[in-house]
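Support reply, case 0932

Customer input (verbatim):
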Amino acid sequence: MKNLIYSFILLFSFTMVGQDGTEIWMSYELKAKDGMSQKFEAAAAKKTQKYNSTAENGIFTFNIMDGENQGMYSRVIGWKNWDFMNSNEDRSEELKYWRDNVDQYVDSSTGWKVWRRVKWASHNWTPETTFDYMLKHTRVIKPGMDQDVNHFLGRLQRVYEKHNYTGVVAVFRVMSGGNTNEYIICEGFNKYGELGEYPDTDKTEEELYNEMFGWESYRKDAKAYNLALEMYSRTTERQHFNAELSTQL
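Our regenerated output:
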């Protein structure tokens, strides 16, 4: 199974975002064998340096710090488009290197998930964006309740934009590999307790929201948003960026 997963991703090469604007990301999680984390990281770092040293073939890794996947590694590829998905570039040499030098330290891995970044609900997320830590909030929308979720997230982004919110926020929704009603909100930051601020005002986010959309709009929209989510899906995990296992641009 692991080899099939790696074969899938290594078929592709880098391109810029396509004309239709769809921005594709891919991710999966893996677990090192007991007592083999250091050997895995050393081997994976060499592989990354050898085969993932440019934007064209870049890959990024995060350590999952808590939750049910604590201790696992999250591997992420992003800023792709449909040409990336249609590419037939031969990556067999890279696959063989992983199989011969890295795979022996891997205990298990999940399947890849393909995501579309929801750009109209994201803020300050660019190819130049960097951060040391990330909160990953996973949510699942109840069938037929998309509008309530989109309404609230879209309005929040407009508040961020208008009032120069300094935080880094990206919203992604599953395209394949999982429940297509699943989405994640990723918040990048460099210091715990400092996710972002509104530098030009002392007002709260709720106050700014209500100024833009009307009295009590925040509470009304937030309530509709929360009622649109499956209760079991409200999870959050901390992830730490692993520079040694990531492309250095």
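We compared this against your earlier run and they match. Two observations from our side: The domain at 2-117 is CATH 3.30.70.100 (Alpha-Beta Plaits). Confidence is low (pLDDT under 50) at residues 1-19. Please reopen the case if you see a mismatch on your end.
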